Amino acid sequence: MKTLLPAFLILLSFSSFAQSGNKTTALASRVIASSNYKYNGSTFFLSDTSNLTYTGDHGGAYPYTTGYAIYPFVFSINYPKCDLMLGQTYDASISAFRNSSRITQTLDAAHNPIMFANEQWDVATSAWKGLAKVLYTYIQGPSGELISEEVQQSWDAPTTSWKNSSKYIIFYNGDALADTIITQNWDAATSTWKNSTQLLYTYDGNGNNTLIYSNKWDVPTSSWKSSTRLYNVFNNNVKTSMMAQTYNSATSAWDNKDRELYTYDGINNLLTDTYEKWNSATSMWDGYNKNIYTYDGSNRMLTDIYQTWDGVTSSYKNSTFHTYTYDGNGNRLTDIEQDWISNAWKNYYRHQYTSNSYNQRTSDISDRWNSGGFWEFVANSGDGKTYYYYQEYTLGVNDPITVDGGNLVVYPNPASNVLQINLQWKEAQPFTVSITDITGRVVKQYSEPAAKQYSRTIVTSDLQNGTYFIKAAGVNAVASQQFIIQR
């Protein structure tokens, strides 16, 4: 059985201050980096990293929570509200990271995105190649901004520029609920937008979405034609069923397609979620899959059983079984998946999590069950470790948590053969980066010209296992951090 690496530093980004010691109060925490380790059969190796930079008091978490949500049915961004997220992949041949992906965002004063761009690094040309870009427009609603238009663009390699692809136009009712969403596609031949689909929303008096019509644009008649519709049924503002139908133009009637049925306990915890498909031959609903949930006294989900329909026995059969545990703050600690084999539940996969004092996830370690009766890491199977690193910052101001100093971020920690450092000063200044061992002996040192932001990948394969200190000493400030070399 493979053993876990020793405990790592949960909160890697410490605040550093000028020699005066002045400090502001941190009110929030935002993710600034992540590192992924893969297992090769004997050891873990650092495979890729992500670095995030911010301006002002933008923030967010990644990737298990949504930084912000765009209205349903419209493109959704699952990234924090950062200005830049740089993904890099470790290249063992050069003992350094290579660029792999880059996400840039422009945010308005309300922290809403007005531009999102995703690019990929092209190794052959050593240049960034565009993948997707999204532009947002907002209107002012009763309690904040509402997205009114979203333009999606794709990268055109021949012209090395962004080209329009599709557009969403959103209209709202008096309660600031979207009642119409129109999708248009870009026609390059005429340089105009052409209608594609239309979504019409209906709500009850409590703001529950009870009906959605989806229409397609018919070019010959220049009109909207019925396509699908979705019914949602609520009981005391709790959804009890959802049914989808498709429009049959031959019969001018709506045909059943599929539905979901929900049951709850007395305090509205979801107990079952059953998905069924319509059988036109028998004019009956056929079972397809089902989830069964249980909860603890704090209404946290304890188990999730997934079942699939067996047409031979006309009954649901067990498939997978998840059990969850939590810490005292309600953060998930473990997720163990079992599979139904030979009429019994057998361990299969496990996730173990840790969280910081802000209830943000700091690690995700995954391994799988060995039939010999123990958990182990399996090479080239997806097993591995992901660590997330955070930075405290002050909400509502445009300065980082440090007043006169700098923020020094060091990862991974523990490190093995390479160490990544990111440094941000309040003002540009020349500085020296030095690494010392536990005795105070300087083992590495770099003199750098004046800069406000600085990143460097340091090869540490020549350092022995142990505890080290890295210090950035500038003209006006000093930032330091402790890290560990461990192999």
- Provide the low-confidence segments as ranges: 1-26, 62-76, 397-404
Give the topology string: H per helix, E per strand.
EEEEEEEEEEEEEEEEEEEEEEEEEEEEE
Report on the biggest sheet: 22 strands, antiparallel, barrel
Report how far apart the termini are: 18 Å
Regarding quaternary structure, what we see is single chain
Shape: globular
Mean pLDDT: 84
Structural category: mainly beta
Number of helical segments with 4 or more residues: 0
Measured as a percent range, the helix fraction is under 10%
Text of the CATH class: Mainly Beta
Task: Describe how the helices and strands are arranged.
Elements: E1 14-15, E2 28-39, E3 44-53, E4 84-91, E5 96-107, E6 113-122, E7 127-141, E8 144-156, E9 161-172, E10 178-187, E11 192-203, E12 209-218, E13 223-235, E14 238-248, E15 253-264, E16 270-279, E17 284-295, E18 301-310, E19 315-326, E20 332-341, E21 344-355, E22 361-370, E23 374-376, E24 384-393, E25 406-411, E26 418-437, E27 442-459, E28 466-474, E29 478-485
Antiparallel strand pairs: 1-25, 2-3, 2-24, 3-4, 4-5, 5-6, 6-7, 7-8, 8-9, 9-10, 10-11, 11-12, 12-13, 13-14, 14-15, 15-16, 16-17, 17-18, 18-19, 19-20, 20-21, 21-22, 22-23, 22-24, 25-26, 26-27, 26-28, 28-29
